[in-house]
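Field notebook, page 282. I keep forgetting to write these up properly, so this time I am using the form the group agreed on. The chain and the ligand, flavin-adenine dinucleotide, are recorded exactly as supplied. Prediction of the bound pose follows.
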Amino acid sequence: MSEPAYRNPWHTQAAVVTAIRAETPGVATFELAWVDAKSKPRVPAKPGQFNMLYMPGVGETAISLSGDALHSDLLLHTIRKVGNVTGAMFRLSVGATLGVRGPFGSAWPIDECVGADLVLVCGGIGLAPMRSLVNQLIRRRSEFGEVHLLIGARTPRDLLYRNEYSRWKAGGINVQTTVDRAESTWTGNIGVVTLLLERLNRFKPAGASLMTCGPEVMMMYTIQMAISRGFERRRMWVSLERNMNCAVGTCGHCQFGPHFVCKDGPVLRFDLIEALLEVKDL
Ligand SMILES: Cc1cc2nc3c(=O)[nH]c(=O)nc-3n(C[C@H](O)[C@H](O)[C@H](O)COP(=O)(O)OP(=O)(O)OC[C@H]3O[C@@H](n4cnc5c(N)ncnc54)[C@H](O)[C@@H]3O)c2cc1C
């Protein structure tokens, strides 16, 4: 069995905020550095994994790694302010410290997709756990067929990482965007992200792989559209952002049938959890 990336899964390590970048309304990327270099995980985090971020006196929450942990010691977390913990993080300034446990969970199955066409579909903050995947795919671009990244957002102002799209395109990724509601200056697509999947013509469905992250309803419509386009159920993966506590499959908070989203997920193969997706959060 491979060694876990962390030394002690319960041990929270201190990290210092080295930069805070505003991304879209209510969303910011926090750049963190370990206070003690020995806190660095033994094995770098893989795209799709998450950390538990701890605000002393407030609580702890799961946040995906959105940076390039394989090539940098800095941790990047893109966070939407929704509640207690994320609200407290948004009151931090550069130089403040917080706690980090991880990395935890499953990763996007990059190696299983070598040789295939790839379609990545995300909505809103769902692009955060895909950014590190996109960067890896660019590094390993010759190993894959067509790579399409379909991004949906509420409005143009809600499109995450907009200044990175030209670099991703130059790296061989077909980036397409769409918004639910446009402003007068927007000349791009309008409509749900599944429309982009419906119109996609530069891919071979046989053997093609699909990975999706975003609101569950969006992922379900994406999967339905993908099935109608000829994707196989065992070639599709979803990233589930269910509520979780311990992150190591002990507390049962995120138990989803026989699966623990924290330990077996968040990235799960669709055919293995299809029936369970009907179940709402407990
Ligand atoms: C594996 C995993 C990875 C995640 N990665 C990220 C990430 O990269 N970035 C990120 O911003 N979040 C991410 N999340 C979601 C994040 O963990 C939750 O938003 C978390 O609840 C925030 O904690 P809080 O204490 O601020 O809010 P809470 O106090 O837990 O929530 C406050 C209120 O907001 C509601 N709420 C919670 N989440 C959302 C939401 N997403 N949208 C709207 N309302 C919501 C709750 O129902 C509650 O009513 C991830 C979750 C998981 C499980």
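OBSERVATIONS:
- The chain has two domains: 13-104, 111-239.
- The CA atoms of residues 25 and 158 lie 7 Å apart.
FOLLOW-UP: compare against the apo run.
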